[in-house]
């Protein structure tokens, strides 16, 4: 599904990703871990198409297409979804309106007919029940005045509505208490299927108790320095990142 | 300074008006000052320098073409090049539409009010020009206690035909004690040449009266509209104004509120969306002359293309105006890197027991928000439009006339969408 080869990316003069290689297949869950400043969030941002970063080398292939050639909205239409570490407040636009626009723009991109109000409502209700989110939250301005937990839950709801092929969760656990964490993780697990894949970017092992990865990769200084199965995450939890740093440096 | 040619042309008109008549005097005053230029502090960003050199047809004819009617208006008035006609008369008793001379005969008591008015006219030569050249002084008069149940529609049209012209429309609105009126004004234009639309409205709102004034300013390019709206409020009255500046080459709104009694409420709402080669300027004055009153001012702007916007908001709280609450807010989005916004809040407070606040902001669309929306599949132009519409919605939502609210939304969406598409 996703094939990253020798990916280099910089912000300004500073090179942050220095040759990432990663393959994600359908049905898989990959965890990207690593100490602060290792480039985890940069990788998520580059995949989603954030324009602050310049890709200087390498390639990213997503379902046969050159991902780096596509605008962020085209990537979304191709099936990429980034759950933000800090979801942005959009004053004056309700979640409902926001998602109506998104769904219909994506349908337009795919050459499908737009959904009418009735179809929308039906689909919304189904997804709401699915991720256990309240109507009142959806009619408010998107993320405006939401608590940390509400914002993350809203991200998962958006993910449910847009039904991506590849979901990238960028530090979704940051700022969440244990209950919120569990709710969010349950949502992610429910949305998992043999047809889609998930990349979980996280600093702590905690989230991986709830979203169990098939593979764990450790990012350090812009490279994947170690890959393994979920046991690697547990080892990291126990020993910290220092032993990996010392192996690399 | 006027060009020699223009000076001669206007001098001739002044002779005809009679040098000692009110109109002749006003014209002489205008001739000595000329059109404002950027050297005038009040016109720093809105120079009318070029107008000093352009000869115009000063009395364009007011041919009234009847257009489609609406069913929501209690009556329809039309002003074509400053000539007023009644298109659909009022059925309700207690509303009169008439000329000033006739009005003063029927309502002699108004003379005292008329003489007492004391507007702030610093650097406003265009007011003189209007007084001098307006062909008709029209009055909407709502009598004591009359609640006009449906809005009055005023179709204000300037038509240059094919020659550079100027129209000087003058309107007086008088609400007697306890009267209630909602006026919807659609300002439009026709013709192929440039036109100066110079419009004076003097509005007297008596004790306990309630006046709502909605202006939909939607002209062709080539129209320069200068709007002087002076509102005098007496005890316990309320006035709500909504000024939507949608299109024109130039719009200058001088919106003045004179609060002459206690327990007065004044709400000023405005939205301007200038595009390529357009300038929109709002100069507001709220003059708290008496205690225990309240004013709320909300102006918002979306500036597109190489547009220029100006907001100058003056609030005076005179020494007698204790316990005044005066709030002002002006927020702007520069939707293009070539657009400019000039804001200047000006508060002069002479009383010590008052609450006043003001805030002006000018910014660009939030890049993070745009990326967030794009990452969900919304294209960049659609994301920009969505954010801009959300921004202007606050002002539109305050309009409680449903038909107009929908019409305004439609026009504003169309203009924003078009400009956003052009600039992508």
In brief, what are we looking at here?
Chain A has 9 helices and 10 strands.
Overview of the structural elements:
- The complex is a heterodimer of chains A (249) and B (424).
- Chain A has 249 residues and is an alpha/beta fold.
- Chain A has one domain: P-loop containing nucleotide triphosphate hydrolases (Rossmann fold, 3-Layer(aba) Sandwich), CATH 3.40.50.300.
- In chain A, 39% of the residues lie in helices and 25% in strands.
- Chain A is built from nine helices and ten strands.
- A six-stranded mixed sheet of chain A has the order 6-7-8-3-9-10, with helices on both faces. A four-stranded antiparallel sheet of chain A has the order 2-1-4-5, covered by helices on one side.
- The radius of gyration of chain A is 18 Å and the shape is globular.
- The model of chain A has no long low-confidence stretch (mean pLDDT 91).
- Chain B has one domain.
- Chain B has eight helices and 19 strands.
- In chain B, the strands form two sheets. Chain B has a ten-stranded mixed sheet, with helices on one face.
- In chain B, strand 1 and strand 2 form a beta hairpin.
- In chain B, helix 6 crosses helix 7.
- In chain B, 50% of the residues are buried.
- At the A-B interface, helix 2 and helix 3 of A face helix 6 and helix 7 of B.
- Chain A: This is Fe-S cluster assembly ATPase SufC.
- Chain A: One of its GO terms (molecular function) is ATP hydrolysis activity.
- Chain A: Keywords: ATP-binding, Nucleotide-binding.
């Amino acid at each position: 599904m996703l094939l990253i080869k020798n990916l280099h990316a910089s912000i300004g003069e500073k090179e942050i990703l220095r040759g990432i290689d990663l393959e994600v297949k359908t049905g898989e869950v990959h965890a990207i871990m690593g100490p602060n400043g290792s480039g985890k969030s940069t990788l998520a941002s580059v995949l989603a198409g954030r324009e602050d970063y310049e890709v200087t080398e390498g390639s990213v292939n997503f379902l046969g297409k050159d991902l780096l050639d596509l605008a962020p909205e085209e990537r979304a239409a191709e099936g990429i979804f980034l759950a933000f570490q800090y979801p942005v407040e959009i004053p004056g636009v309700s979640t409902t309106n926001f998602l109506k626009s998104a769904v219909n723009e994506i349908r337009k991109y795919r050459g499908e007919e737009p959904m009418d109000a009735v179809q929308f409502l039906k689909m919304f209700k189904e997804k709401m029940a699915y991720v256990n989110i309240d109507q009142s939250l959806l009619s408010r301005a998107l993320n405006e005045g939401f608590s940390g937990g509400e914002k993350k839950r809203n991200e998962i709801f958006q993910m449910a509505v847009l039904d991506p092929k590849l979901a990238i969760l960028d530090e979704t656990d940051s700022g969440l208490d244990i209950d919120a964490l569990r709710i969010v993780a349950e949502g992610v697990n429910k949305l998992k299927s043999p047809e889609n894949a998930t990349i979980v970017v996280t600093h702590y092992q905690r989230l991986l108790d709830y979203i169990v990865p098939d593979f764990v990769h450790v990012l350090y200084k812009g490279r994947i320095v170690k890959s393994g199965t979920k046991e690697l995450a547990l080892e990291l939890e126990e020993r910290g990142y220092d032993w990996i740093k010392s192996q690399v440096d | 300074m006027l060009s020699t040619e223009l000076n001669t042309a206007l001098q001739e008109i002044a002779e005809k008006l009679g040098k000692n008549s009110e109109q002749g005097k006003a014209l002489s005053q205008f001739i000595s000052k000329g059109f404002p230029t950027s050297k005038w502090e009040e016109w720093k960003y809105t120079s009318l320098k070029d107008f000093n050199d352009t000869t115009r047809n000063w009395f364009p004819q007011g041919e009234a073409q009847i257009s489609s009617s609406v069913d929501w208006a209690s009556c329809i008035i039309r002003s074509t090049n400053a000539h007023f006609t009644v298109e659909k008369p009022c059925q309700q008793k207690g509303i009169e539409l008439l000329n000033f001379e006739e009005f003063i005969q029927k309502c002699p008591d108004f003379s005292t009010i008329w003489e007492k008015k004391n507007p702030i006219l610093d650097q406003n030569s265009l007011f003189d020009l209007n007084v001098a050249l307006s062909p008709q002084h029209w009055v909407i008069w709502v009598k004591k206690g009359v609640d006009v149940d449906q809005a009055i529609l005023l179709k204000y049209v300037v038509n240059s035909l094919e020659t550079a012209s100027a129209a000087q429309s003058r309107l007086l609105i008088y609400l007697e004690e306890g009267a209630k009126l909602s006026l919807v004004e659609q300002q439009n234009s026709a013709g192929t040449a440039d036109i100066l639309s110079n419009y004076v409205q003097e509005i007297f709102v008596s004790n306990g009266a309630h006046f709502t004034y909605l202006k939909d300013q939607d002209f062709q390019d080539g129209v320069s509209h200068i709007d002087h709206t002076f509102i005098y409020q007496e005890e316990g009255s309320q006035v709500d104004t909504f000024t939507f500046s949608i299109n024109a080459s130039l719009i200058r709104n001088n919106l003045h509120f004179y609060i002459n009694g206690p327990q007065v409420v004044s709400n000023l709402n405005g939205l301007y969306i200038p595009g390529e080669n357009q300038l929109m300027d709002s100069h507001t004055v709220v003059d708290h002359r008496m205690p225990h009153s309240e004013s709320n001012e909300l102006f918002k702007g979306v500036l597109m293309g190489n547009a220029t916007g100006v907001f100058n908001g003056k609030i005076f709280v005179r020494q007698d105006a204790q316990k005044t609450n005066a709030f002002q807010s002006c927020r702007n989005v520069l939707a293009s890197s070539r657009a400019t916004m000039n804001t200047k809040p000006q508060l002069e407070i002479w009383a010590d027991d008052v609450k006043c606040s003001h805030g002006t902001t000018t910014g660009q669309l939030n890049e993070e928000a745009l990326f967030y929306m794009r990452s969900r599949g919304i294209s960049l132009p659609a994301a920009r439009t969505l954010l801009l519409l959300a921004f202007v919605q606050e002002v539109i939502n305050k309009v409680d006339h449903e038909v107009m609210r929908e019409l305004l939304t439609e026009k504003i969406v169309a203009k924003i969408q078009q400009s956003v598409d052009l600039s992508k």
